Amino acid sequence: MFNQAYTMNCPPYPNGRPNLECLCNDVNFFNGIGDCAFRACYTQDAENTLGLAVIYCTDRR
């Protein structure tokens, strides 16, 4: 998913890492995670993936 992040008008940080501040405020980022997870996983796993994305964006350490 982060490879796709570089195409979402969220330039990476100077060290090359994805710009979470920008991505986590972009509904398309979460939609992309959801689309990818529900295509590749069972429903429960996809829901868990979305939950982890929310946690990841809430606690950006």
From TrEMBL:
<keyword id="KW-0964">Secreted</keyword>
<dbReference type="Pfam" id="PF05730">
    <property type="entry name" value="CFEM"/>
</dbReference>
<protein>
    <recommendedName>
        <fullName>CFEM domain-containing protein</fullName>
    </recommendedName>
</protein>
<dbReference type="GO" id="GO:0005886">
    <property type="term" value="C:plasma membrane"/>
</dbReference>
<keyword id="KW-1015">Disulfide bond</keyword>
<keyword id="KW-0408">Iron</keyword>
<keyword id="KW-0449">Lipoprotein</keyword>
<dbReference type="InterPro" id="IPR051735">
    <property type="entry name" value="CFEM_domain"/>
</dbReference>
<keyword id="KW-0336">GPI-anchor</keyword>
<keyword id="KW-0325">Glycoprotein</keyword>
<dbReference type="InterPro" id="IPR008427">
    <property type="entry name" value="Extracellular_membr_CFEM_dom"/>
</dbReference>
<comment type="similarity">
    <text>Belongs to the RBT5 family.</text>
</comment>
<dbReference type="GO" id="GO:0046872">
    <property type="term" value="F:metal ion binding"/>
</dbReference>
<keyword id="KW-0472">Membrane</keyword>
<keyword id="KW-0349">Heme</keyword>
<dbReference type="GO" id="GO:0098552">
    <property type="term" value="C:side of membrane"/>
</dbReference>
<dbReference type="GO" id="GO:0005576">
    <property type="term" value="C:extracellular region"/>
</dbReference>
<keyword id="KW-0732">Signal</keyword>
<keyword id="KW-1003">Cell membrane</keyword>
<keyword id="KW-0479">Metal-binding</keyword>
<feature type="domain" description="CFEM">
    <location>
        <begin position="19"/>
        <end position="57"/>
    </location>
</feature>
